[in-house]
Write a structure and sequence with these properties.
- The protein is an alpha/beta fold.
- The protein has one domain (5-229): Rossmann fold.
- The chain contains 7 helices and 10 strands.
- The protein has helices spanning 49-56, 79-89, 105-110, 120-133, 149-161, 179-196, 207-210, and strands at 5-18, 21-34, 38-42, 64-69, 72-73, 90-94, 167-171, 199-203, 215-220, 223-229.
- Strands 6-7-8-3-9-10 form a 6-stranded mixed sheet, with helices on both faces. A 4-stranded antiparallel sheet has the order 2-1-4-5, covered by helices on one side.
- β4 (64-69) and β5 form a beta hairpin.
- The chain is globular and about 50 Å long.
- It starts with a strand and ends in an 11-residue tail after the last strand.
Length: 240
């Protein structure tokens, strides 16, 4: 692993105004992430997990302090530069899957690479590779309505990894899945982390996810309460 930070936050602050009141979603957060980490943000609702993911993913900007992602200062880049950073280097996985219902599985996964100026054959290879990674190459022509929840989340993972991004941000990715599908999804993400060297950062309450982590960062009231290395304690029933 390269000993260089791909993500660094320095005294990161995010404040939301609610009338006369201010809500400190993040309060001087200092964190660094390296290449190929498999890390999780845990803590109660309102602790700042999703806010931190959104800033790292350039979907939001800090109120104070700095967030540096792959050499880009999130507080300084333009909307166009932020979009380019996301399009080229960051994948997102959400608990609601966010698949486009009128498109096939293949088209949903292809969507992020349409703006990359690639040929049809190059895109086809990338999409089929991504579907193969998640074990859904045989469902390429299916529509989302024809898939189970677990399959839909695997399509969402394929869409997130199709460009082989440096970073994948996963916000409660197992929240709508049963235990068996959760373990299948986690096995898939762990395998992609190891094979592609992608940095995964989760925001989660799920103990099943936490058992897979190699680093656990506990946020409370917008502050880092604990940052600890973990030994994965997996107990799924899905073969790799």
């Amino acid at each position: 692993m390269e000993n260089s930070h791909i993500i660094e936050t320095k005294d990161l602050v995010k404040v939301y105004s609610m009338g006369e009141h201010k809500i400190w979603a993040l309060n001087k957060v200092n964190l660094c992430f390296e290449k190929a980490e498999f890390a999780g943000l845990v803590g109660p609702s309102g602790s700042g997990k999703t806010t931190l993911l959104n800033i790292v993913g350039s979907l939001d900007s800090p109120s104070e302090g700095s967030a540096i992602v792959l050499g880009n200062k999130i507080e300084d880049i333009t909307h166009k530069q932020a979009a380019a950073l996301r399009n080229q280097h960051i994948g997102f996985i959400f608990q609601t899957f966010n698949l486009l219902p009128v498109y096939t599985v293949y088209e949903n996964v292809e969507f992020p690479v349409l703006l990359m100026g690639l040929s049809h054959e190059e895109r086809k290879t990338m999409v089929l590779d991504a579907l193969e990674w998640v074990g859904l190459a045989d469902r390429a022509k299916s529509k989302p309505a024809q898939l189970s929840g677990g399959q839909s989340q695997r399509v969402a993972i394929a869409r997130a990894v199709v460009k082989k991004p440096a970073i994948i941000l996963a916000d409660e990715p197992t929240a709508n899945l049963d235990a068996e599908n959760s373990y299948h999804i986690l096995d898939t993400m762990e395998r992609l982390n190891k094979n592609l060297g992608t940095t995964f950062i989760f925001a989660t309450h799920d103990e099943k996810v936490i058992r897979y982590l190699r680093r656990k960062i506990t946020l409370i009231d917008g502050k880092v309460a604990k940052d600890e290395a973990m030994t994965p304690q997996k107990s799924g029933g899905v073969d790799r």
